[in-house]
Structures are given as structure tokens and as C-alpha cells.
Description:
Mean pLDDT: 84
Distance between the termini: 27 Å
CATH class: Mainly Alpha
Shape: globular
Low-confidence stretches: 313-318
Protein name: MFS transporter
Membrane topology: Multi-pass membrane protein
Number of helices: 20
Oligomer: single chain
Number of domains: 1
Keywords: Membrane, Transmembrane, Transmembrane helix, Transport
CATH superfamily: MFS general substrate transporter like domains
CATH topology: Growth Hormone, Chain: A
Strand content: under 5%
Helix content: over 70%
Largest sheet: none
Domain Major facilitator superfamily (MFS) profile: 38-480
Subcellular location: Membrane
Amino acid sequence: MYKLDKPRSVQKYIDEAPVWRDGTPTPRIPMTAMQWRIWLLASAGKFFEGMVVFMTGVALPLIELDFQLSPSEKGLASAATLTGILFGASLLGGLADSVGRKRMFIVEMLLFTVFLTGVVLAPSFLWLLVFLLGVGLALGCDYPTAHLMLSESIPSKNRGRLVLSAFGFQAIGALTGVLIGYGILSYSADAHAWRWMYAVVLLPSIVVLILRFFIPESPHWFIDKHRKQDAEKSLSVLLKRDPPYPPTINIKMPVMKQASTEDKSAEPAGYQLLFSKHRRATMLASIPWFLQDLSTYGIGIFTPTILVTLFGAYNTEHHTVAAVIQNDLLAAKGTAFLDLFLLVGIVVAVIFTDRLGRIKLQIVGFIGCSTGLLLAMFSLFFDGDGQLLMLFAGFILFNFMNSMGPNAQTYLIAGEVFPSKIRGKGAGFAASFAKLGAIITAFLFPIALASWGVEILLLMLIVTSMLGAWVTWKLRIETSGKDLETL
């Protein structure tokens, strides 16, 4: 039976199934309306990221034409948002440990809306880079903050499925971004059409910003700050049910170890802990994610460019607005079809991540990615329908295995392997380090594609995917089924 006066930890309250009047526990832990609201708002951030970042692949040819960009400037435009994510994940996301999860959850969406407005109205290429960088800062902050807001508010039993289903909105956003780009291009034969692509995101971002004011702060964060009463109030809002359950909340505070002055001065703090006591967790969260982002953003952003290059869509002699838009439409169709398999992959990840474990899915996914890229590379030695079939088969396999494996699991693991007091910093650092891979790919891909060709690039990504599988195995820490307090 449930005892009204028995103190327990925050996670024990969240993980506890309600009981019937006769003392029989319910067979599952029902999510409250507030828990679902937090899930939805966390999902929105990933949706916007996928939408904006991958829509860039459709918008880029028009941006290139509008501002008359060189290959290196085109690379800067591709890398600007990713560079912002790199700095935002650590500099802003890490603040979630000190100023609070909810506060940064709101700040990031405010920054996203303001800078996205700047992108739409950018008067020059330089200002466009500044605003894209700002959008990236906001999206980078969302990596750790959204994960923490969600994972610290839901039952441990469902954490993997719920966090990944929220993360899956990145794939939905990617597909939506491509479809929006296609729809706008279909009705607007104008070099400025790319501005409308980004403008579409503004209204929903404002709605999400407003709704984020009306959720509670993470009770785990309050406990870390020794604010017991605030934690109990937050938990009561989070677990509000009708009829009320639990009827009262009395949080058990963790026992604080007494340390001497010398011990306190010698003990590392903040980011130092990531590279001392939690070095293995930091490496597991960061290195595979970096290797995964090399291929994810290389293939994801530049799928339209690759399709255009292989099938001769670009007409270098007649580079008119109409020709570029027509080529962009053809490439967007192929990209939208391929992005469907990102959704299929994340659905499989949601189903199996708590059953098979994060590590196993990540390793299998990395191997599957390299196999898909190998098929795509072999397609270059064929002609006609054979080339088209093998290329699409390779990209389909890559998108599915990546979404099921490393793209989903690296995000999930990074928010689970660190203790609460440095969880924002740990997840933020991992996301920042990962985005180094994305930036390298985004900036160098257009240049390398023109200099080396598709074959060499695909071969390099095959090697990095296999390396990701090996590193995951060597550093493995399985988090499936464990509550955050235990971890």
C-alpha cells in the first residue's frame, strides 16, 4: 500500500504506478496531461531543427543564385546553422545546470524565433550568415535542454521510447521542410522564394514559445539545488491527476557526504568532471555522435545536390532562375522520398530501444549505414536504371539504419550517462563535439564534391561509419531500463 508519510525520491514518485482503493497497483504508469505537454513541446524543438537544417538543402540553390555565391560561400551558408548548434549546445545548453531547465527551454525558443525572423529579412549574405548562426545557437541549446526537460519528467520504463519518439520529430521536420520547399517552388518561380520557406516556421515557433511558459521546472533540478519545497510543488504540477495521485508528496533529500576543505579544493567541478570522473561516458556520448554527424549531415543536407550532380540536373550554360528552380524541384522529389525512411527508422528505434538496448542498436545501425553507402558508391559504376536503383537502395538503407541506430541512440545516450548536476553540460558538450563533424561535412562537402567526386566522399563516410561501430563497442555503457537517479 502507498504510505502518505513515507518520503521518497523524485524519480520514485514519477515511476510509481497509481493503486486502486483496495491497494492493487495499476498495470502501467499513465502519463499525466502535463507530462504529455512537455513531450509535445520537446518534440517541437526537434521538429524545427529537422525542418530548418534539412530545408537548407532545398533553399541553398536559390540562396546561391540570389546572392551570387562562390563554392566556399555556399559552404559557409551550409555550415552557419551547424556552427551555431556547436556553440549553443555547450554555451547555452550547459546553462540548464545552473539557471534551470525551464528557463533555457524558453530562452532557446525566443532566440530561435528572433533569429529566424532575421533570416527571412536578411538584406545581404553577411547578415544571412549571422542570423543562421543565431538560429543554430538556439537549436544547439535545445539538444540538451529538451532532452533533460523530457527525460527528467517521465517514468524510467518509458524513457527510451518517449525521448526517441520526441527526437523522431526531427525526421518529420526534415520531410516537412523538403515538402514545404517543394510546394513553394511549385508556385513561385522567384530567386527570393527561399525566404518564404523559412517564414513558414515563424508562426508555430511563436505558439511553442508561449506554451513553454506554462510548464513546471524539473523537480530533479530543484533537488540538485537543495530546494525541496520548490521540487515538491513542481512535482505536484507534473503529476496532477484526477483523482489526485499521489495524494501527498514528501521528497526524500539525497544524503550529502561531508568533505574536508582539502577534498573540496581537490575535487573537479563542472566541465572538469566530464574529463576526469566521467571520461568514459563523455567519450561514448561524443565520439560516435561526431562520426555519425559526418555522414548524417553530408548525406542529409546535400542529397539534392548529389542527385542533381549524378543525373545532370544542373545546366552550367543556362543557369537561369527557371532552370535552377526546375532542377531544385526534381531533386526535392527524390529527397522527400528518401526522407520517408528516416521516419520508418525512428519508429523501429522507438519500438526496440528499451527491448534490445541502446548500444546494440547503435552498433547495428552504424554497420547498416556503411552498407548503404557502399551500395550508393557501387551505383556509380552502373548506367541508366541500374544506377538509379542501386543509388536509391543505398540511400534508403542508409537513412533507415541511421535513423534507427546512431542518429537516435547517440542523442538518447548523451542525455542519460551523466549525473543530474552535470547532465546539461555533458549532453551539451557531446552535441557540440558532434556538430564539429556536421560543420566539417557541410563546409567542405560542396568543395570536395567538385574536386574529388562522389566516389571518394562516399568511401570516406563508409570508413567513418565502421569506426563508429567499433568505438561504440569499446566504450559501451548500456542505459536501457535504468532510472536516472541510479545512472
